[in-house]
Amino acid sequence: SSIGILPGNATRVQQYFAKLVKGPANTLTQLPGSYLGPILRFQKGQKIRINLHNQLDEVTITHWHGLHVPAEVDGHPLYAIGKGETFVYEFEMLNRASMNIYHPHPHNTTAKQVYHGLAGAILVNDDEEKRLELPDGEFEIPVVIQDRLFDNQNQLIYARHMHDRMMGFYGDRILVNGLPNFHLDVASRAYRLRVLNASTARIYKLAWDDNTPITVIGTDGGLLEKPVKKSYVMLAPGERLDLWVDFSGRKVGSRLVLRSREFSGVLPGMMGGGRGMHGSSLPVGSDYPIFSVKVVRQVSDSPALPQKLSIIKRYTAADTANPQKPVPIGISEGPMKMVLNGRPYAYDDIQPNERIPFDTVQLMEIFHAHGGGHGGASKPATRHGGEESGHKMGGMGMRGMNHEGGGKGMGMGMRHGGGEQGGHKMGRMMGGGGMGMMMSMAHPIHLHGQYFQILNRSLDGPESKGYASVKDGFIEGGWKDTVLVMPGERVRIIKPFQDFKGLFMFHCHNLEHEDMGMMRDFSVE
Ligand code: C2O
Ligand code: CU
Ligand code: CU
């Protein structure tokens, strides 16, 4: 099959327009009234050709987030094309059934292009999934969550102040599938919701308003082994959730709202429990609705939730090529810049730690390179050269900081708009071992290529109130390609690097951070 994707160009909206040249009719599904690109549906094993025609006045390239494809067709910024140019993608669908994303990946302008509308969902189906007979057709509903800011003409506003880049850009309207005030009329039976956080920076804590548990059947990389019930689930930019929601037993007329619930600890100033500063009138971590549901139709039968979904072979450190020496992914939160492994993004700057032997399974550790006496034997921050400059904060005014937990786990309040006092210097505020971060925030770290497994998480310091407000919402038992790394946290993952050599990016999926250079390449060789 073959489709053409045509990024268009309205005044402020940028859009993927697609037409199917050849292939099954269900390959493309338009979301009615939406600026989002159509849903692309593929089968495992399918051979795919996609022609990207760039009709923007700027360079772009499309990346297939989550898909295991050759480096040359992964949407690396090296392959960005200019106005009027065409890029031809050809690959075979190797992924298992899963929800993935397509979005632009040109260096420095990814966030802006995604914000203005360039994004869409990819649903991959396979035989294993088909056998489960999960709700499909009108009972399988995509839920693409984004936040946006509008001016009084209802046009999108996107700012790029240094502050928005540091914290991420936040809108004050929640859109689902590109629509405000999203609402679903449902029948009294089970549904499958395919949820994707396509916001540039906003993190959600999803829960039903009547405290019905959230039933998760899959994550980024497809189905879990068995369903997991949670009172809430966290969803960071780039992450997906496959939710089972059963309305049977609910009366016609009954309502349910999916909300984002209160939490803290993901932005500077939030560590002590506050919501942190990011200049939005819809604060991250406040309580607000995402969409509403109303039961409008009584039906007599509904599929039952399968208790066995899939088989996932769990990796252990012993299965990796480097059980003693995890590949470091160091988060450096420096003055006015966010980078990985201490270095801003460049195409031709592969460091020894970033060379991965082809056809291996690697143990990797994501950690905050600054912050905190990691007292143990491993000191990855220094070992891997993540040390850069001291914390100098030009252009930001600082307010008081609050100690928490007896001087451990330090939160910092920062206020926007103190631009006049450049060059505020902040000493490194850590004392003995077990001290928390300063100016630290949560980062959704995404790796291109194959899905990975999360081996474990640990905290460098004591658990903060903020951490406690999110920790039960991580779904870790399945395949992932994006993981939310909280301040002071170390996350060990195991990832295969098979089938394809070449450059595969890893970056923060806070897209403002990505564009600031919080991105590196692994060279698989
Ligand atoms: Cu969703 Cu490298 O991106
Ligand atoms: Cu990706
Ligand atoms: Cu980040």
From TrEMBL:
Gene3D superfamilies: Cupredoxins - blue copper proteins
PROSITE patterns found in the cross-reference section: MULTICOPPER_OXIDASE1, MULTICOPPER_OXIDASE2
Chain spans, region Disordered: 369-398
InterPro entries cross-referenced by the UniProt entry: Cu-oxidase-like_N (IPR011707), Cu-oxidase_C (IPR011706), Cu-oxidase_fam (IPR045087), Cu_oxidase_CS (IPR033138), Cu_oxidase_Cu_BS (IPR002355), Cupredoxin (IPR008972)
UniProt protein name: Multicopper oxidase type 3
Keywords recorded for this protein, A-Z: Metal-binding, Oxidoreductase
Membrane spanning stretches: none
KW Metal-binding (keyword) present: yes
Organism: Methylomonas methanica (strain DSM 25384 / MC09)
Any matching Pfam family: Cu-oxidase_2
